[in-house]
Design brief:
The complex is a heterodimer of chains A (271) and B (129). With 271 residues, chain A is an all-alpha fold. Chain A has two domains: 90 residues, no CATH class; 125 residues. Chain A has eight helices and no strands. In chain A, helix 3 packs antiparallel against helix 4 and helix 5 packs antiparallel against helix 6. The longest helix of chain A has 62 residues. Chain A is elongated. With 129 residues, chain B is of the alpha/beta class. Chain B has one domain: Response regulator (Rossmann fold, 3-Layer(aba) Sandwich), CATH 3.40.50. In chain B, helix 2 runs parallel beside helix 3. The longest helix of chain B has 16 residues. The N and C termini of chain B lie close together (11 Å). In chain B, 40% of the residues are buried. The chains are: A mainly alpha (271), B alpha/beta (129). Chains A and B meet through helix 5 and helix 8 of A and helix 1, helix 4 and strand 5 of B.
Chain lengths: 271, 129
């Protein structure tokens, strides 16, 4: 790097930023240019940050010796906008609200981690209870079926007195065991029910996060409207294939909402 | 019909979901089930030991389900492996992508035991053809 670049405090960061933009552009040559401001604000008075930036830009070791024109003008615009934003934020008191929003992010992260923990615990508890209760139910079922066969034999008069006595005592044992199994199973059912308490807790936390997100959105939107009235709306839902559960299916035609639609779609394609 | 001893590999990054799928498979009589927490681990397991069936999520770290599917279909020894996707990804694009890369079935979460049973049955039917 040139001395000039080394001496200038910001330029390393700016260079990194620029490099990343160039790399991103090189990586996706067909991608539309980043949403640069439609009309770069004519800098009537030289903005404080701009001159410093320009020196570092011209001296930056870009292959070929100079940056191409669109990149440079974009770079300058970003610098000017940053300065304007900074000043305007102060004037408008947005710095406080953005500070609040930024402070809310770790909070939201913690809340979401909390939800993840609670839901995991609930699932774990429920599955454990099912695992514990299931063998008891299986045993009751199997024993009862065996006893039914025996009793059917009795009613078909295919049983002598000794066999009958054995059957009666086995039946008694079965009833005792069933009663105790039923009691234990009930306890597990209660446990399963109680494990659902996460719904209440996570519901509250989620509501708070939604409120926070709304607030942040409002702040940022107001902010964006202020500074880029001509900015294009961000492309709606680019064609990523990793989106997670669809939580906003209403009115959308690009998603399916149940298994039937999956099957229909596949069938229509001949799969 | 299907061999109840066939060996399943359940691939999902959430242990709860793996456990649920494992339990459902057990309920359907398949108790020979292994688990993997992402596509990378799954591919390693598939290559190092014998499996008969893959049930995979889509969205996972390291290697996604669709990448796993492509890798399986590209491997000469694995390419005929039945591969069922069970995923929350519900865009039509996803379903078409999975189908064109040779998924044997596609189930969207949340799903029911009956759906899993039906899809497995269908896949076994196609296998026996």
């Amino acid at each position: 790097m040139s001395d000039n670049t080394m001496n200038s405090g910001d330029s390393d960061e700016l260079q990194d930023l620029f490099d990343s933009i160039v790399r991103a552009n090189a990586g996706t040559p067909s991608a539309p240019p980043p949403p640069a401001p439609a009309a770069p604000p004519p800098a009537a008075e030289p903005v404080a940050a701009a001159p410093a930036m320009q020196t570092s830009v011209t001296s930056s070791p870009v292959p070929g010796g100079s940056m191409d024109e669109p990149a440079r003008s974009m770079f300058e615009s970003i610098g000017q906008m940053t300065r304007k934003i900074h000043d305007a934020l102060r004037e408008l008191g947005y710095d406080k609200s953005l500070e609040q929003a930024a402070a809310a992010i770790p909070d939201a992260r913690d809340r979401l981690a909390y939800i993840a923990t609670l839901t995991e615990q609930a699932a774990e508890k429920t599955l454990n209870a099912v695992d514990a209760a299931k063998p008891m139910q299986d045993k009751i079922e199997a024993e009862a079926e065996e006893l039914i066969k025996e009793w059917d034999k009795l009613f078909a008069k295919q049983m002598d007195i000794e066999q009958f006595k054995a059957l009666v005592s086995r039946t008694r044992e079965h009833l005792k065991a069933s009663s105790s199994y039923a009691k234990t199973t009930n306890d597990y059912l209660l446990e399963i029910m109680m494990a659902q308490d996460f719904q209440d807790l996570t519901g509250q936390v989620i509501k708070k996060i939604v409120d926070m997100a709304k607030q942040m959105e409002t702040h940022l939107l107001a902010f964006l409207l202020e500074f880029s009235p001509n900015a294009p709306k961000p492309a709606e839902n680019t064609s990523s294939l990793v989106n997670g559960p669809v939580y906003n299916a209403e009115g959308r035609t690009d998603v399916v909402t149940n298994q039937e639609q999956v099957d229909d779609l596949l069938a229509s394609l001949g799969f | 019909m299907s061999d109840k001893n066939m060996r399943f590999l359940v691939v999902d990054d959430f242990s709860t979901m793996r456990r649920i799928v494992r339990n459902l498979l057990k309920e359907l009589g398949f108790s020979n089930v292994e688990e993997a927490e992402d596509g990378q681990v799954a591919l390693h397991k598939l290559k190092s030991s014998q499996f008969d069936f893959v049930v995979s999520d889509w969205n996972m770290p390291n290697m996604t389900g669709i990448e796993l599917l492509k890798a399986v279909r590209a491997d000469p020894t694995l390419k005929h492996m039945p591969f069922l996707m069970i995923t929350a990804e519900a865009k039509k694009e996803n379903i078409i992508e999975a189908a064109t890369h040779g998924a044997s079935g596609y189930i969207v979460k949340p799903f029911t035991a009956a759906t899993l049973d039906e899809k497995l049955g269908k896949i076994f039917q196609n296998m026996n053809k």
